[in-house]
């Protein structure tokens, strides 16, 4: 009988692969994550970040002023 080891869970990229959205500052997501190194996602694409998703309907602090 051969035991199969569970596949290691890769946690290194779990956060950076999230889809974020930004408003005025393309380097800063609505949730506050620095996305300057991340690929831009289309507005049509799924926003995986629940914080960004939640804030999408609200103006960012800069726009609110
Ligand atoms: Zn804004
Ligand atoms: Zn986000």
Describe the structure.
The protein is mainly alpha-helical and 65 residues long. It has one domain (17-65). Helices cover 15% and strands 0% of the residues. It has 2 helices and no strands. It has helices at 50-55, 61-64. The longest helix has 6 residues, at 50-55. The chain is elongated, with a radius of gyration of 16 Å. The termini are far apart. The model has no long low-confidence stretch (mean pLDDT 78). Bound molecules: zinc ion (2 copies). The site of one zinc ion (ZN) has 8 residues, from helix 1.
Quickly give the structural class.
Answer: mainly alpha
Please describe the biggest sheet, giving its number of strands, its sense, and whether it closes into a barrel: none
Element string (H = helix, E = strand): HH
What level of helicity do the residues show?
Answer: 10-25%
Cα-to-Cα separation, first versus last residue: 67 Å
Number of strands: 0
Tally of individual domains: 1
Mean pLDDT across all amino acids = 78
Number of helices: 2
Low-confidence stretches: none
Radius of gyration: 16 Å
Write down the overall geometry: elongated
Ordered list of secondary-structure elements with their pairings:
Elements (H helix, E strand, L loop, with lengths): L49 H6 L5 H4 L1
One zinc ion (ZN) binds next to helix 2.
């Amino acid at each position: 009988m051969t035991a199969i080891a569970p596949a290691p869970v890769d946690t290194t990229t779990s956060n950076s692969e999230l889809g974020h959205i930004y408003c005025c500052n393309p380097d800063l997501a609505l949730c506050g994550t620095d996305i300057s190194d991340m690929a831009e996602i289309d507005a049509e694409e799924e926003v995986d970040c629940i914080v960004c998703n939640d804030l999408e309907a609200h103006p960012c602090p800069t726009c609110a002023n």
